[in-house]
Amino acid sequence: MRFAEELLLMLHHEDSGYFVPIPEWKMSCALAGAVLMDLALENRIDADLKNLTLINATPTGDELLDPSLEEIAKDKETHSPQYWVERIAQRADDISDAAVDRLTEAGILESDSGGFFSLSAKVARSGRYPLMDGRTGEEIKGRIMRTLLDNELPDPRDIVIIGLLNNCGGFRAMMEPEEYEQAEQRIELLSGMDLIGRTIGAAVLSSYRPPESMRAVKRRSMPTVGLKSMLSSKSLRSGNLPKFMAEKFEELGPVFKLNVPGKPIVALAGADINHWVGKKGRHYLRTRDYLEAFQSEWGTARSIASMDGADHFRMRKAVRAGNSRLVVEDRMGDLFSLGRSSFDEWKVGEVIPGEMACQRLIGKQIAQLSVSTEASEILDDLLKFEYRALLVHVMGVLPKFMLHTPRMNRYRKRILEVYALIHASHTPAQREGKRRDLVDDLMELHHADPQFLPETDLGFAFIAPVIAGHYLGSAMAFAIYELITNPHYREQVIAEADTLFSNGDPLGADLNPAAIDATHRFAMEVLRLHPIIPMHPRTAMNSFEVEGIEVPAHSSIMVAFPATHYMEKHFKEPDKFDIDRFAEPRSEHKQSARAYVPFGVGTHICGGSRWTELQLVANILLVARHLDLELSPRNYKLKISPLPKTSPNRKFKFKVTGYRHPIDPVTAA
Predict the structure, then answer these.
(1) Which DSSP letter does residue 64 get?
(2) C-alpha pair distances (Å), 168 with each of 24, 162, 278, 333, 540
(3) Cα separation of 56 and 667, whole Å?
(4) What is the mean pLDDT of residues 546-552?
(5) Cβ proximity of 371 and 463 under 8 Å
């Protein structure tokens, strides 16, 4: 391994899923020092207290080292080690990204979609790392801690790591105070044992970037969008918030203030913003604030959606299996059966309310697959209560008393009954011989640590997937609209559906990429053109800067992740429904990192995104297999309801004009 990789492994925190926070500039200098140390050991440079000298400009063949070596070789003057530490520190993000990628490719770290990292199960179990030459090396953290606390003789490379960590403040940040006090003298002793390491370490220690408030750099003022400007926007008036945010991005840049009545909102948009949120947002953005009042209406103090940091990571790990795509694959037969039972209620010739029908379709499936409960009787009540709670507490467009009307109080009472029903159905005897579900995982976590997940928070955790199904229901409604209005693509989906169902219901494994190519691209385009969550509220817990504009702490933030879906530079003719944009050679979703983001970005990216995508595809196939549909009225043009999420408006309705194949599960083939 290179020193940068070992430095990151030392700072990796298994409980938080990320790296111990070090002041950014100090960490950048430490990574620069790590690169210079490797170049010294490769006999490319030499250094003393005053000068860093090039010895050999021949590339090492290592992407972590060669860009810095090339930069040193191009400079005809001789500079101090500190000069080069500060120069190379400006590339610290590239160094860090490359090092993390290598650790992941080597099977040492594992990552999830939220940007969390864990030691791989093999490394955690064996305590050894796979090395590039096929050998294994002892896990570095245990090795160095023994050196510091048990006075073991250190390896020369470990001395370098100890020096770099000491000089950037890593040991003080990662060790308990008593532990650090015990090891401090030995840390200082070992840090001074290597001449080159001591020289570069001193440069790391002395490099200092003053805080933003002390700099003389003139900042730009934040552009402002007034209420009049907002109301004059055709996109905003039509309810298309992502398109409105894309237009303002083109006009004003990635950060601007929305002067809405009440409290101004700072809006962030663009692919670079999405990348920044994914990489650094955890240090600056918090989710808890806007969800506290909403959660209290459900009788819970916190949920996975309102957790940040180590608690959020722990909760994500606990529910990972219950939210995985494998659940849908394993229970594909149940999904199809539940889907057909919903279709049985869509009588031929009757006008069907589009969104509500799709909410029930998806809600019944998720209730069975996720919490193994029949929730159809109370599903409407639950979704209506959620809708009202979002409008009151998250959107702030209704007064609080609107959640305490007699009707809402009845809904709240029924929700408490569902909590009890789910709980009672998940005793060991009731669950014997059944496939493990999300509630089983939550109960296990509750029993293992009732302080982390107390009974007061269990109920909401049980029904959170059903609530999340509200969003997938809206996506399904958009999918049906696009199926009806795009006959060319509908025929492609029908062809795949008929092939898959030709010999009975397909298994989850049968829905492989080749078999669902057009349907998968159809679902992707539904999620691109109709992102259900148009903006993600956050609070700035620390101030930060975007392109010379300061965003103060405590600011109310709206991150418009899917605004990129409506940017011409990422998606050609973005207003057009076009599934071929995802096929080779166009592959528009791959051309710009973080441009296609239907499930958000960063630590709070949807943990069930792969489940959601497969469930959407399966239902599109099921509709295409069985139903002939038309809009009601036939000339209906899609209109959007933007609050509390993006969905077709209430005028979206359709009719079943006939059955392509019978919906009776026995004769479905």
Answers:
(1) T
(2) 10, 10, 24, 56, 26
(3) 76
(4) 89
(5) yes
Dist. CA 583–CA 492, nearest whole Å: 14
Q: What Rg value do the Cα atoms of the chain yield, rounded?
A: 28
Q: How far apart are CA 144 and CA 362, in angstroms?
A: 52
36 and 29 in contact (C-beta within 8 Å)?
no
Q: HSE of 182 in the Cβ direction (CA atoms, 13 Å)?
A: 12
For 389, the token pair is 């709670």
Taking alpha carbons only, the member of 311, 23, 3 closest to residue 173 is 23
pLDDT tens-digit series, residues 138-181: 778 888 988 998 888 888 889 999 999 998 889 999 998 889 99
Q: Which candidate, 326, 339, 660, places its Cα nearest to that of 502? A: 660
Residue 538 CA to residue 550 CA, distance in Å, equals 16
Task: Report the alpha-carbon distance of residue 628 to residue 346 in Å, rounded.
Answer: 11
Closest CA to 388 of 640, 643, 647: 643
Q: Tell me which amino acid residue 103 is.
A: L
The gap between the terminal CA atoms of the chain, to the nearest Å, is 56
Give yes or no for a contact between 642 and 241, defined as CB atoms under 8 angstroms apart: yes
Tokens of 133: 């030459």
Per-residue model confidence (pLDDT) at position 271:
96
Preceding peptide of 261 cis, ω within 30°: no
**Bridge partner list, 178:** none
Specify the pLDDT at position 262.
77
Phi-psi category of residue 547: left, alpha or beta, with phi > 0 → left and psi -120 to 50 → alpha: left
β partners of residue 536: 559
CA dist 397 and 260 (Å) reads: 12
* Contact yes or no for 113/605 (Cβ under 8 A): yes
Contact call for residues 364 and 479 (beta carbons, < 8 A): no
Tell me if 487 sits within 8 A of 630, measured CB to CB.
no
Which tokens hold the place of 245?
Answer: 């945010």
SS3 content of the chain, % helix, strand, coil (to 5): 55, 10, 35
DSSP state letters, 28-62: HHHHHHHHHHHHHHTTSEEE-SS-EEE------S-
User: In this predicted model, what pLDDT tens digit does every residue of 581-630 receive, in sequence order?
Assistant: 999 999 999 998 899 999 999 999 999 999 999 999 999 999 999 999 99
Helices (DSSP H) in 175-255: which residue ranges?
Answer: 177-191, 195-206, 227-231, 234-237, 241-252
For residue 3, give the nearest of 232, 204, 261 by alpha carbon: 204
57-105 tens-digit pLDDT: 999 999 999 999 999 999 999 999 989 998 998 899 899 999 999 999 9
* Exposure class string for 248-287: b at 16+ Cβ within 10 A, else e: bbeebbbbbbbbeeeeebbbbbbbbbbbbbbbebbebbbb
With beta carbons less than 8 A apart as the criterion, state whether 282 and 18 touch: yes
